[in-house]
Amino acid sequence: MQSLLKELVEENRHWVKHGKVANYIPELGKMDPNKLGIVVVDTGGKVYRAGDYDISFTAQSMSKPLVLLLALMDNGEEIVFSKVGKEPTGDPFNSIRKLETLKPPKPLNPMINAGAIAVTSLIKGKDNEEKFERILNLFRKISKNPNLDINKDVYLSEKRTGDRNRAIAYFLKDVNIIEGDAEEILDLYFKQCSIEVTCEDIANIGMFLANQGMDMELGETLIPKYYTQIVKTFMVTCGMYDASGEFAINVGIPAKSGVSGGIMCAVPNRMGIGVIGPALDSKGNSIAGVKVLEGLSKKLMLSIF
Ligand code: DON
């Protein structure tokens, strides 16, 4: 496995030249587009690392599956899906255009920004501080990294510039999908996106999902299996945004990307994978990261289909 990962990183590194680092969040624009790294964690807890696996990056949209898990545990399925749908959009992740025409006016799924903002609004806690603590604690627990924390620069950078998300949140407030203060909900959303992780952290989260919500070391179910199934299904149908269909054919595993260039994958009952490659394709997914995953999936026959 170790040499396979190394080969795949070397073979696919040239793709970074064809992508671009996200710069609509100014602080993300500082990432090095040439980086490419991967970590695989298997069911036996063995860890394999290759390339620039040791760099840190923010979770961005990879936070969406985790916050959905917490919202499901806090509220149950019925309430969550009264605020957000279960269908792919075929639109970019930050698109606004369908929101006004939907009846009822709920965002189509929890993996696009609009849906994720609706989900974030459901997190329980006496104030934003407590709500964020709860999100961060879940991240720490299932990534097995008690030191995870927020990257303040990225958080403040997005808070300053996130006007498209602001527009989405205010619209959702107007149509009663979110309740409470739109700015507070956005603040929590920007914070969850700014939690700083490594490939190993997201590979562990992927492994946790692959393992149906069970902590392997403790032998304890931390999250109901059914909720992890819901989340993995969204990762397949919407996790790579409007490239989810292509990714399902070429790679075939539940995955969630973030604009930082990370991709978090759960191969059911087999492994968790974390990839970083900040140079993105036109849909906002790591261009070289997707190629590495294609190679890995073909070699190890990882497709679930
Ligand atoms: O809300 C945003 O635009 C970012 N914080 C997260 C978007 C994202 O990661 C999309 N991923 N490909």
Describe the structure.
- The chain has 305 residues and is an alpha+beta fold.
- The protein folds into 2 domains: 2-60 and 196-299, DD-peptidase/beta-lactamase superfamily (Beta-lactamase), CATH 3.40.710.10; 63-193, DD-peptidase/beta-lactamase superfamily (Beta-lactamase), CATH 3.40.710.
- The chain is 45% helix and 12% strand.
- The chain is built from 12 helices and 10 strands.
- It has helices at residues 2-12, 63-75, 77-83, 113-120, 128-143, 152-161, 163-174, 182-193, 199-210, 225-238, 244-250, 287-300, and strands at 37-42, 47-51, 57-58, 149-150, 195-197, 214-215, 220-221, 255-257, 262-267, 271-276.
- The strands form 3 sheets. It has a 5-stranded antiparallel β-sheet with strand order 2-1-10-9-8. A 3-stranded antiparallel β-sheet has the order 3-5-4. Strands 6-7 form a two-stranded antiparallel ribbon.
- A hairpin with a 4-residue loop joins strand 8 and strand 9.
- Helix 1 packs across helix 12 (287-300) and helix 5 runs parallel beside helix 8 (182-193).
- The longest helix has 16 residues, at 128-143.
- The relative contact order is 0.20.
- The mean pLDDT is 96.
- The chain binds 6-diazenyl-5-OXO-L-norleucine.
- Keywords: Acetylation, Hydrolase.
- One of its GO terms (molecular function) is glutaminase activity.
- Substrate binds at residues 61, 113, 158, 165, 189, 241, 259.
- It catalyses: L-glutamine + H2O = L-glutamate + NH4(+).
- This is Glutaminase.
